[in-house]
Amino acid sequence: MIKEPYSIKQSLIVTSLFILALWVIKSAEILFNLNLTGLGVSPGNFSGLLGVLTAPLVHGSISHISNNSLSLLILGTALLYGYPKTRWPVIGIIWIASGIGVWLFARQVHHIGASGLTHGIFFYIFIASILRRDKRSIVLMMIAFFMYGGMVMTIFPREVGISYEYHFFGALVGAICAFFFFKKDPKLAEKTYSWEENSENEEDDIIGDEWELPPETEIKHQESDDRLNH
Description:
The chain is mainly α. The protein has two domains: 8-181, Rhomboid-like fold, CATH 1.20.1540.10; 194-229, no CATH class. It has ten helices and no strands. Helix 3 (62-82) runs antiparallel to helix 6 and helix 5 (115-132) runs antiparallel to helix 6 (135-148). It is globular. The model has no long low-confidence stretch (mean pLDDT 86).
């Protein structure tokens, strides 16, 4: 598995290809009059376990896939760019574990869509940045929070037709991953400027010459001290 850092452009391309695949699936569903809801997670049914793998690929409407596409583009690009060693394990764990959580505990309906994945990535970026406290992770967190800070609230029940369970378990798994993986990715090397290096190695000409007394002065002070002591 490739663990070399992606550039922002490469991260954007990889994320865009995944989003394109989602749109191809949705377009095929519309063009051929298919109903892919059965590929979602059906809690408690062994046949519904297939949805753990397929549910994030299926969306109920154009607005549903549009909303997830934009959040995937921003958050997915941030994850691929900022976390080169943990990006793929995190995506895989969020994908599978959030689906299993939905299968075990969610309402008895079909749960579909990539929102569990987006919530997991958001909470991973958010928690990992707090734990790492390096410049790159903090910048990525600020972008993610500025764009999608509302995800903190969507893990709770709000609308009947929205799978808050997928949101919740995605967020939970993403947060857990952050605690386990936040040390794995290398931090950016702090840039050192030439003037900083010189200041450490060079002696201050003014202070360096002034603070030491000439030998003759030290002898006079010593003689004066001897007279006082006697």
